[in-house]
Recover the amino acids of this structure.
C-alpha cells in the first residue's frame, strides 16, 4: 500500500458506509491474515515474530478462524506452543518468604509474586501482535494521506457526502493537523455529519413512540447502529456484522 494508491482507496471508501479508515483497515487486515495462512507460512522470520508475540491478540485470533485456515494456523500454533512450553519449563520457582519485603510488595500490588515472576514474564508476549503492528502502520499512513489531502476538492466533496470518521479516527486525524484550513474543513464536515446523525436518532426515537408506530422507520431505523459504530470505532460495519 503506497500513498498515491491510498488516496484513491480513501476516495472509494468515502463513498461506502461507515468510517473510511476503519473500512480500509478491515480490508487490509483481512488480506494480511489470508497472506499469513496461505503464502507466508514458510517465512522463518515471520514465524519467529509470531512466537515472540505468543500468537495473536484475541481480536486477530478470532479473525484467523476462517475457511482454509486449518493447516496454516496449526503450523503457527505448533510453533507458539513449542515456544510456550520452553518458557514454562525453563522458568524456575524462587522460594521467597511471604513476609520478606518483595513478598509483601507483591501481596499489596498486582505485581506477580517474586516466586513465580520469571514464569509470568517468560510466558508473556515479548513483542506486540504482528497483525496489530502492521495494521497500526497502515492506519498511520492512511491518516497522514487524509490530512495531506483534506483540502483537495474531490476528497473534500466526498468527505462531506460520506458518513464521516469514527471517533477514534477523528481524533487520530486531528492529532496530525497543523494547518488551520485543514482543521476548519474537517471540523465543519464532521460536525455536519454528526448533526445529520443526531437528527436521525431523534427521529427514530420520536417514531418509536406508540402514537407514531404506523409511520414506520426509514433510513433513521439504522441510525442507532451507525451511531454505535462511529462512536466505538468498530473496524467492521456493525450493520453487516453477524454473530
Ligand atoms: Zn474509523
Ligand atoms: Zn492483533
Amino acid at each position: 500500500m503506497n500513498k498515491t494508491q491510498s488516496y484513491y482507496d480513501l476516495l472509494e471508501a468515502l463513498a461506502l458506509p461507515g468510517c473510511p479508515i476503519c473500512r480500509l483497515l478491515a480490508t487490509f487486515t483481512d488480506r494480511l491474515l489470508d497472506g499469513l495462512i496461505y503464502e507466508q507460512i514458510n517465512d522463518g522470520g515471520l514465524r519467529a515474530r509470531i512466537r515472540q508475540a505468543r500468537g495473536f491478540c484475541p481480536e486477530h485470533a478470532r479473525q484467523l478462524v476462517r475457511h482454509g485456515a486449518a493447516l496454516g494456523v496449526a503450523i503457527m500454533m505448533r510453533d507458539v506452543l513449542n515456544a510456550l512450553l520452553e518458557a514454562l519449563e525453563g522458568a524456575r520457582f524462587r522460594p521467597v518468604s511471604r513476609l520478606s519485603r518483595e513478598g509483601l510488595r507483591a501481596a499489596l500490588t498486582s505485581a506477580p509474586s517474586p516466586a513465580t515472576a520469571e514464569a509470568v514474564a517468560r510466558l508473556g508476549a515479548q513483542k506486540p501482535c504482528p497483525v496489530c503492528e502492521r495494521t497500526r502502520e497502515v492506519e498511520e499512513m492512511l491518516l497522514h494521506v487524509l490530512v495531506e489531502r483534506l483540502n483537495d476538492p474531490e476528497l473534500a466533496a466526498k468527505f462531506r457526502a460520506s458518513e464521516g470518521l469514527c471517533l477514534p479516527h477523528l481524533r487520530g486525524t486531528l492529532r496530525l493537523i497543523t494547518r488551520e484550513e485543514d482543521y476548519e474543513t474537517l471540523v465543519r464536515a464532521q460536525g455536519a455529519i454528526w448533526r445529520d446523525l443526531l437528527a436521525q436518532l431523534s427521529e427514530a426515537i420520536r417514531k418509536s413512540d406508540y402514537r407514531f408506530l404506523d409511520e414506520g422507520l426509514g433510513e433513521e431505523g439504522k441510525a442507532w447502529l451507525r451511531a454505535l459504530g462511529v462512536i466505538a470505532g468498530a473496524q467492521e460495519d456493525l450493520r453487516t456484522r453477524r454473530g
